[in-house]
Amino acid sequence: MTRRTWVRLDNASNIFLAARSETDPKVFRISADMDHQVDPVLLQSALDTTYDRYHLYHAVLRRAIFWYYLQDSDLRPTVTEDTKYTCAPIYDANRTGLLFRVVYYRERISLEVFHALSDGTGALWFLTDLISAYLRLRHPEHQALEDTSTAELTAQPGAHEAALARGLTGDSFAQYFHPATPPTQPHDKDSLPKPQKAFRVSGTRTPDYRTRAVEVTMPAKDVLALARAEGISLTMYLTALFFEAIRSSSGGLGKSQTLAATVPVNLRQFFPSVSPRNFFATVRVEHTYGKGDDDIGSVGRNLDNQFRPQATPEALDKKLRRFAKFERSPLLRVVPRPLKDTILRGVNWVNNRGLSVSVSNLGRVTLPKPAEDHVGRMGFHVSAVRPQICVMSHAGHLNVSFTSPFVEMDHIRHFVRTLTAHDIHVTVDATRVTEEELTPTSESQP
């Protein structure tokens, strides 16, 4: 009998399993637009090569009495045409299967991942290597180019390849945030004000719980100039713009004049890691309207002033050790897995009550040769329990993807109109979710 490698899930992955639902299956998608129509045969060959390098992506999810765990498998992935709705469920507790899929449609290649397997950065590494392998097959003149797509992410030669090979065992949370080890530096008591009760966005649920996804694309330099003019980061500028779009489209925020967002932080920038597994934390920011200046620049500066002290290595270290202590508490360790799920689901529900929207930015992506010369727009988005924007830029294109469990798109219209009022050229692509929209009238992307 073959001995299988297995490992318990990290603390972020356990939350995704407990919190997944019919509305939000905890799946995200990263896409890249080629300069040609995708060849599925070559893409399959590239996937076979890339898959052999990423041992983590061989994993399937298993359930034990006290925990979930990842276990390697002999399954092989198959490239398919993109015919399902975006971010459709991947993990099925009643069926053993891989936790990702690769799909194509016309010029676009997309990778969809169950979030318990990997985060956006780890998935971007996989997609980068996949596209590079595909383009070397399509352009034989590039075959001699060295495959440095992800090895360049670390200063230690061979470290990334070693991390891929031990994919199932590279838990960076356990490496850096074990509660028994001392913190990196002492951290003062939290000085942030007590969180306010936040406005909850509501709407009409999509008929079959599919995610409404809308891609808004614009010149990156033009939007970055708006953020720099206000003296704030692009992420906080877009968050402030998102807040204003929600406020304007809601017709007022009712009794609660506070909007709150959760913003993921890639921990690899502070705690060196080349593991493709989940390694991020979240930061909460909020703004209460009617208590000062509420223009987009002022709101963005308020959010930036909250975000920066929470996104330091010391603050993140303290926060994540607290989570690790909770996860490894003797009482919780002996609680059966179904009851753990209930507890974590309750914790997640409480956290969600204090949030209005979510904002995630994977930043500016630079691909290795030959991919950089053949890839245009890139973007990503997630299944969502609340309105969310996901941001990515490549080749001068800034892609802001809106996802929501609701049919309504008024907040997106307000968002776009604000940008066009600043003479920003914007293109919009929306998925179809209602019965009326899905009625075939012309050839359209799924």
From TrEMBL:
Q: Which InterPro entries match?
A: Alcohol_O-acetyltransferase (IPR052058), CAT-like_dom_sf (IPR023213)
Report which residue ranges the record marks as coiled coil.
none
Region of interest called Disordered, as start-end residue ranges on this chain: 176-204
What Gene3D superfamilies does the annotation carry? Answer: Chloramphenicol acetyltransferase-like domain (3.30.559.10), Nonribosomal peptide synthetase, condensation domain (3.30.559.30)
Which residues does UniProt assign to the signal peptide? Answer: none
The identity of this protein, by name, is Alcohol acetyltransferase
